[in-house]
Amino acid sequence: MDSVSQMALGAAVGVAVMGRRAGIGKAALAGAVLGTLPDLDVVIDYGDPVSNMTQHRGASHALFYLTVCAPLLGWLLGRCACWQRWTLAIWLIFMTHVGIDFMTVYGTQLGQPFTDYPFGLGSIFIIDPLYTLPLLAGLWLALRRRGERGLKANRQGLWLSTLYLGWSLVAQWQVGIKAERLLAQQGIDAEQVLVMPAPLTTLLWRVLAMTPEGYVEGYISWLDREPTPFTRHAGGRELYREWQDQPYVARMAWFTKGFFSMHERGRELVITDLRMGQEPGYVFNFVVAERDKQGAWQTLDKPRQFSEGHNPAQFAWLWRRALGQPVMPPSKAVSYKL
Fold first, then answer.
1. H runs (alpha helix) in 204-280
2. What are 272-289's pLDDT values in tens digits?
3. Which of 58, 93, 132, 199 could form a disulfide with 5 if both were Cys (CB 3.0 to 4.6 A apart)?
4. Per-residue pLDDT tens digits for 293-305
5. Phi and psi dihedrals of 294, rounded to 5?
6. How many contiguous H segments (helices) and E segments (strands) does the chain have?
7. How far, in Å, are 105, 131, 174, 252, 259 from residue 211 at the CA level?
């Protein structure tokens, strides 16, 4: 999730566990800082853009390592007094941090050092105001009212945000059932299907299906009144078969769990994570090879990343589509290097 959500969640958990003992202000501040601590791995340079992407949410999000670190941090915060309670608070802050990351589609390597599989449910978008606002409201009331009334407001914020996560799982499950039916009705041979919320909402869902020829994309809103059309796209499977042993290509295929595409962009060979973005704009695109003057492919020692920015009309389209209007998404995106 985004940093604001993680800070709010960490602060709310800190207040819930330590508010009576350490004071609401101190517990909220400590929780906010600790709630963002696992994400500091973004400052680590692993040597190339593909490694930076695929190793984010790695060891710093592992249940084993975080559990080991919690008592040490608890002792430092508690200074020998009440360190057991601080340890519990810190452990819960860490677990809830990786828990909501696990519910996004990016991938969180919870099982390190035993496995580096990137777990991810994909039931909530990385930024969702309906998840974050109850936490912020509960914290604001807790800091303003203090005492038992403030602690109760904070708990209510935690309960509401947790119920919203539960709703996202139910919504994803129901949309997945509908998506399977619509794909079959439209004669689409789907090998893999991924159902993800659209940006900022769980009212509209993006359906991505990989096929033998490429992939299809469609959107399902809870307010739809007619079948959802899916659009077909080439996935570059021939290119992948040719390049599947190239380390960066293999790494991306593994990390995306097969939801990727490859294509030529001028003289460049590009691999794209299809899970984050929408046609035609995606966040994670990597140039892994380019043609030399003779036209032969040369693998790059270090991939180049670029992102395709959103069309300004996309946000207007998003809400129209969420309300059930059968409108197609904007067709243009702007590319820029990172």
1. 237-243, 247-255
2. 999 998 888 899 999 999
3. 132
4. 888 889 999 999 9
5. -85, -5
6. 10, 11
7. 20, 33, 22, 18, 10
Residues sharing a CB contact under 8 Å with residue 170, sequence separation 6 or more, in sequence order: none
CA–CA separation, 69 and 97 (whole Å): 14
Cα–Cα distance measured from residue 152 to residue 145, given in angstroms and rounded to the nearest whole number: 10
Q: What single DSSP character describes residue 299?
A: E
Which position has the token pair 């990786």?
98
Is the Cβ–Cβ distance between 318 and 198 less than 8 Å? Answer: yes
The pTM assigned to this predicted structure is 0.91
Contacts of residue 183, Cβ cutoff 8 Å, sequence gap at least 6: 190, 193, 207, 209, 216, 230
**What's the rounded Cα separation, in Å, for the pair 91 and 85?**
10
Q: Band of the pLDDT at 333, cuts 50, 70, 90?
A: very low
Distance CA 198, CA 194 (A): 12
